[in-house]
Design goal:
homodimer
């Protein structure tokens, strides 16, 4: 009896003694300790604090991220690369530098006229085999590591993340879960016109666009799919495509955060801007956070994975 | 020491003895024990059983419900009633039996040209004050109690419920959470054309419809907002509006369930059908479950609430 009690006592003491906790890892490890990072972390701290007047209830913590050039590389735009590769596979004649008219024809032919299942299979094969023309790595590895960390940090703090992209929804939904852990129903994008065929029970994509989720249309896609203004919006400098979305988030009744990725890193990625400097002008006028890839990111892409046998 | 051990032993025995559990309440209490109810319960049982070949993973348990005539009464259509009441308030001349053209004008004038906040306020006032013309109760009390129970039961079994309605999204999102516990981002509906105004940061509704989420358009709204076929679809006989949605759900790779509410209960609700009997014909052809309000529902509306002081 005495032995049992001594053993029990030791166990109790062992359980009751607080373990020396390891400090949690610092957030956003691929981000340099710059003002932008501080603004992000401060924003999260404030809006998650129930005692703070800027507290945002979880159901209103909506963040929208553009895709191309914002959370993965867009030189070239991956969906365009897919269309061209697929067109060649299909035996189509593809000019080295297709005109806009030819390119549209290529996109329509490679994205319509097949079932969802067949299309998904073709996209999967592309992602399994294609290499980025410059980096010579699988496309999956051209996502931006700092952005993956940012999205995860937001999710850890109760945010619901949506993609709002000019890419088409059927294309993006093949990888949004795999690359970003964003399920298909939180992907807002462009779409072709559709026609429903009850006999075959197919929802067929027609050879014309119905909605181009870009520029001033982004708030519309957000209104239709979500019905709330995001409180965080993240886009990029490149083709003026995100300024309305970022502006729209600023109209929230809550304190909001706008982030604009600037492609100024010639050593690790691509340097490009806009002829009229629109996005950076809006960022200055409306006081958005401009992310300098060169200065604010310690790393651009994820570490290379071991080749899978 | 001995006393301590005896006490501990009693505690251990008390904890270890299984408590006699109260039987859980029978599901769907407002549904009569008919074949339809059995089909619903059997379906849920099968698709939630991991050992069953028809098991559906939680992320694919999507259910879409129409609104008018399916989960609340539609005689009259509530959004139309709102439009007419609001038009009168605004001083518009409203004929006793407006033509389609006049009605469209009324809808456009009462739904566009104001901010989201102003619109929501007007809708709230309507719901706070309006009485159903026949039942003389607040509109909130014209929801179908059996359907509330069905949707709750599905949620309890891992389903995600969407509304897919011809009503406009801004209108429905004012009450979807309150009445059905369905958040705004799971409301698929019709919408006006929009124009974004960066200076005022307003997404303005224009005086024309852009998308009418009805009939063959319902699968399109589902594809844009969700990107998966529902495995359960529920609509009603009335204006042929749900047959494509129900058919679309039947094309799922999973075992699916189609439910069609038939308004055959003259004693407790309204009897109405379709000139060409389209919905019931499709139901017969494609073997859907037809819900007879008269026979399958023990109760139509929720019990009357006490008047709030």
């Amino acid at each position: 009896m005495k032995n049992i009690l001594i053993t029990l006592s030791f166990l109790l003491i062992a359980c009751a003694t607080p373990k020396k906790e390891k400090a949690p890892p610092a957030p956003l490890p691929s981000w340099a300790n710059t003002q932008v990072k501080e603004n992000i972390l401060d924003y999260i701290k404030v809006i998650t604090d129930p005692k703070n007047p800027d507290f945002i209830p979880v159901e209103d913590r909506i963040a929208t991220f553009d895709n191309d050039g914002t959370i993965w590389a867009e030189k070239p735009v991956v969906q365009g690369l897919f269309a061209i590769e697929r067109a060649k596979e299909m035996g189509m004649k593809v000019s080295p530098r297709p005109s806009e008219k030819e390119f549209l024809k290529i996109v329509l032919k490679t994205h319509t006229g097949m079932t969802d299942e067949a299309f998904e299979k073709e996209v999967k094969e592309f992602f399994d085999t294609a290499l980025h023309p410059t980096y010579k790595v699988p496309i999956d590895q051209t996502v931006y590591q700092p952005q993956l960390e940012l999205m995860q940090l937001l999710k850890d703090h109760g945010f619901t993340i949506y993609i709002s992209s000019g890419g088409t929804i059927e294309f993006m939904r093949t990888f949004s879960q795999r690359l970003y852990q964003i399920p298909g129903e939180r992907v807002i994008g462009s779409n072709f016109a559709y026609a429903f065929e009850p006999k075959t029970n197919q929802l067929n994509r027609l050879q014309k666009f119905e909605f181009n989720n870009d520029k001033e249309k982004k708030p519309i896609g957000i209104q239709r799919n979500i019905g709330k203004r995001p409180v965080i919006a993240c886009g990029n400098v490149g083709n003026e495509g995100d300024v309305q979305m970022l502006r729209y988030s600023q109209g929230s009744k809550y304190r909001s955060l706008q982030l604009l990725v600037n492609h100024d890193d010639g050593a690790r990625e691509f340097v490009y801007g806009e002829p009229k400097n629109t996005s950076l002008n809006w960022a200055q006028q409306y006081k958005w956070n401009v992310i300098s890839m060169k200065k604010d990111w310690l790393k651009v892409f994820p570490d290379k994975k071991e080749a899978v046998e």
